[in-house]
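Schema walk-through. Below, the input block comes first and the output block second. Nothing else is stored per chain. Lengths vary across the set, and this one has 570 residues.
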Amino acid sequence: MKKKLIILPIFCLMLSTAQAADWLSRFRIESQETAVYRPSQIHIPEAEVFDETPVEDYNSAVTLNNQAIDALNSRNYTEAANLLRRAVALAPDADGFRKNYIIALNKAEQYDELLKQCEIHLGRDKNDDRTAYLIGLTYLNYYKNYQKAADYFSYAINLEPNDSNYVIALVNALENTKQYGDSVFEILKKHEKSFKEAYPYYLLGMRYLDKENYTKAIRAFRAAKQYDDKGYTYHAYVRAAYYGGYMRGLEKEAELTIKQFPSDQNIDSTKRIYKSLKETEYNFTEHITLKISGASSLEELNFNVRPIKDFYEHQQVTLLSTEIISKGKKQEVQPKTNSDGSLNINVPKSMWSTEVVLELKYKIKSKALCGVYFNGGEEPDIESLKKDENLSYNDKRLSKLADYIDNLYLEDSENYDFQEIFAAKAATAIAKGLKYKENGIDHPVSWALDNLNKCDCTEYSRLLVALCLKKDIPARLATGFLIRRELVDQATSIGHEWCEIYVGGKGWTPVDATLQSTMHRAYFRNILNDQIFFEYPNEHEKTRIGVDYVARNSDITVSIENSYKISNWK
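--- output ---
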């Protein structure tokens, strides 16, 4: 036993040291480099030299060629290939017959012979880009030899750099190798000016989107739209603008895209984006449940609640009803408004029981605010913001992580103030470094840094606030609720937290690190209509929801739970 007690702490120390050397890398935001594609030298045989065909044989080959063309037109591809095989045998020096033979072999799917004839022809005409392209297609689609296909497509591009079909084929081959991501990106960028169709621009836009360079993604999709009559690039444009946080005018753009291209496979994504941007109205029900042990000794019972309130132009709130539910009954009560705006709700004695529920029903009108700043003017007192013990401000790892993030590169940050650049980098790094797991417990930042795989929105947001404060950027928590489609008309106890940073001379602006992993910067400087704002938790000494009671006995215990439900979200 003594050995185990000695060995175990040493082992744990070694493990934590190894983890310490690696933990910062989890917060990396730059994309990792992939292998660079360099085309191999393809084998082109020496040009075969054939004797001149006698006139009689040539005329017979012409007859066979004409019969083969009739067979091709009738879709008798195997017959056409057999006729042209005989024609080429009679007149091997006549390249026109071999070209037709190659067409017939391709139609007849006789790929071994096709490659043989293509190589003969390419040997005789090394500048025939179409034949090199056809060889590449054969390796790509039939033999699944993507490396060799890419080499032939590269050869074709060198001969004819302005044919976007060759570029798309090369990209397709390289993507199938699953090795050359950055090479694909560079190829698309290099040939961008030659594109005369939507798809290559679309591919380029998707690459920029993967790299979180939203401005260039938007530009590529905008270029693609002028060639697109199917709508897929229009839907991609909406996604790029949304993920990049470029919301101005996007509501109308999304609405027009839905109407114009309702059959596109990405229609649901565009509808969700539109829904989060358009002005809307819904019902919000909050249940606050008291579990009371020793309820028979109660003499007085009151709820104290700070109700949901209007929040700038974002939300207008109407409290529709206040009711007590207990003993299978429901009774409406009239709350009293305290001087601080909170509500005092007295529970009638007839409703006292082991479980008492307060039901608050609201109607909320919500409007998305984009590129928004709240309460501009005098800069807040940053020292008071640092006093929140849950921020673990003196944890030495915070300074190390803040400096590490500050030195990372962020794409697409030219339109941000310096405070926003750091906050955007930090939010992105947190989204990559933490792994979301609903934990239901209010943990401090130090706990989050010890448990990177067990964090929910509280830890994501607190870590972002703490990192910003380390860089002397004022930051604070905001609490509320995020409407999720799968939870509409269902009760949930899961609220939401995000943070706001202060941008000098402008005011507070929202940043949501939790949603950064899936929504990119959609919730950066924007508050959308699926966010319900409750309050800034550190503004008050007491929690938003509390209970006061008087009892005859001291052994009474009261616990509080709350849940939310959204309905009529249209």
